[in-house]
Amino acid sequence: MAAEHLEKLRWLPGVEVAAVCDLHPTLPRAVADRFAVPAAYTDYGAMLAEVRPLAVHVLTPPQSHRALVLGALEAGAHVVVEKPIVPTWDEYVELREAAALAGRMLVENYNYRFMSVVLDAIALLGDGAVGRPVTLDVAMSIGIADPAGPYADRDHPHFAHDLPGGALQNFASHPASLAVAALGGFDGVRAWRRRVSPHALGDDELRAVLSGPGVGATLTLTSSARPSAFTLRIRGTEGTLDVDVYNRLLARGSTGDGLAKLTDGLRRAAHEVASTATLAARFATGRHDYFEGLGTLLRRFYAAVADGGANPPLAVAEMNATNRLVHDLFDPANQL
Fold first, then answer.
1. φ/ψ (deg, to 5) at 313
2. How far is 265 from 192, CA to CA, in rounded Å?
3. Number of structural domains, the chain?
4. Contact call for residues 323 and 93 (beta carbons, < 8 A)
5. Quick check: is 122 in a domain?
6. Pairing with 209, which of 19, 27, 42, 158 sits 20 to 30 Å away (CA)?
7. CATH number at residue 252
8. Containing H/E element for 111?
9. What pLDDT, on the 0 to 100 scale, is given for residue 282?
10. Does residue 268 or residue 295 have the better pLDDT?
11. Which structural domain range is residue 224 located in?
């Protein structure tokens, strides 16, 4: 993810990456050379004191985020931090309050929340495209049980396995952020986890039911479904929205007579043809940007930095609700 952040930052006008830092003695220098960064450090405190950055990107394993975020805030920097922001709710509250006290932005990277197709769907939802939302289903297929992947390596276990919710917690922010963005908070969560694949080092499937005023939702994280997919489906009193996040496809349906259904079908077909053609072009040219949302998030973040921290790309209330949902998904009190 550090490479993805650095790649996006090179194309942001008015933004200069002043330094990189890592505990490894040679990696920071190699990264600085690759991305033309003027300084490389292995001492985080020295970097903050000497460079005095306006913003810091914390891209280390989540167990180390707390100390690094607090250090950046104390140094007067705004902070972008990779998900999950910290392992526990109490640590999140501590960082949120520290950012408020320092008067600095603290933004967790919800890459998929800022994908253009998701932003379009949320805008349609806000415009009443489906009427009153009634059901929401968000599902993500992930590769944590892939025997050739990093999460199933028994010789060098991935850091995510040490999170309170195991490797599943390393991904839960993705569906949680979409659910919160689409429907806001929820007043009840019931979840269950299990280990499906013999290759998994821990639980590799999570299913949850969420309740709220007049709306019900399901959330699924699984390593079993193939091919990999990430979908958001919303049903309302006046229509539907179907989002294929990975392939950036959005389909809209509305209630009505046969003519309305025919119009919806033709519109859906035309949209999918156009989107599929765009998808094919991206793959053919090697420009399929899986982290498009990160680019949008960072553009908005640095626009806010230039404005003194006004209008952050992600409201504190939305981060609160997303982190509360992630916590509740793995809270033993909510397990079925």
1. -65, -20
2. 37
3. 2
4. no
5. yes
6. 158
7. 3.30.360.10
8. none
9. 53
10. 295
11. 112-295+323-334
